[in-house]
UniProtKB/TrEMBL annotation:
The protein's name: Putative stress response protein, TerZ-and CABP1
One Pfam family named in its UniProt record: TerD
Domain TerD: 1-178
Database matches in InterPro entries: Stress/Tellurium_Resist, TerD
Domain of life: Bacteria
Length: 198
């Protein structure tokens, strides 16, 4: 049974007392329909929206260990892998996925923060139906889903974070907005936003 996460809610990633081994974070979104009379008359969405999911790996001191995003599709230890960039948000279900093998993660990784940003600087008021979900890769069971209803003038959002607690992992819905500036230091911007969520 899927848990519908609320902002700041934390759950344990255990199944029947067993820690999960492989999961993925799925991100989905649609283009918001134009509002007002013309929007109702013409229907359909606006221009395509290019959102990008990223995973930032931190140690216990909050220092960045590794980053996985569309220009660096795999962590150095091979435990985290981005499935590729979706430039439009078209289609049903997940538009981007990041796979995590929790059993292969380096021992110094204490947390993984998942972010989403608008590559072209389009604001989230142009995005509709956005969500992220955590799925048990073995069997495809959806564990938790977080609806990203944070529409507005921001261009980035810290979605969820995984934190190692002893031998298990805790998942927290973060939902914190940030401003992403296209064309400047992408990893630096994502790291700063993700670090605030630790």
């Amino acid at each position: 049974m899927t848990i519908s996460l609320q902002k700041k809610q934390t759950i344990s990633l255990e199944k029947s007392g067993q820690s999960l081994a492989k999961i993925f974070m799925g991100l989905g979104w649609d283009v918001a329909k134009p509002k007002g009379f013309l929007g109702a008359l013409l229907g359909g969405g606006g221009a395509s929206i290019d959102l990008d999911a990223s995973a930032l790996l931190f140690d216990a001191a909050g220092s960045l260990v590794d980053t996985v995003w569309f220009r660096s599709l795999q962590s150095r230890d091979g435990s985290v892998r981005h499935a590729g960039d979706n430039l439009t948000g078209e289609g049903e279900g997940d538009d981007e996925r990041i796979f995590v093998d929790l059993t292969r993660l380096s021992g110094n990784v204490q947390s993984i923060v998942f972010t989403v940003n608008s590559f072209r600087g389009q604001t989230f008021d142009k995005v509709a139906g956005a969500f992220c979900r955590i799925v048990n890769e073995q069997g495809g069971q959806e564990i938790a889903k977080f609806n990203l209803s944070e529409q507005g003038g921001h261009t980035g959002l810290v979605m969820v974070k995984l934190v190692r607690q002893g031998g298990t992992w805790q998942l927290t819905a973060v939902g914190e907005r940030f401003t992403f500036q296209p064309g400047s230091d992408v990893v630096g911007q994502l790291t700063a936003a993700a670090a605030r969520a630790l």
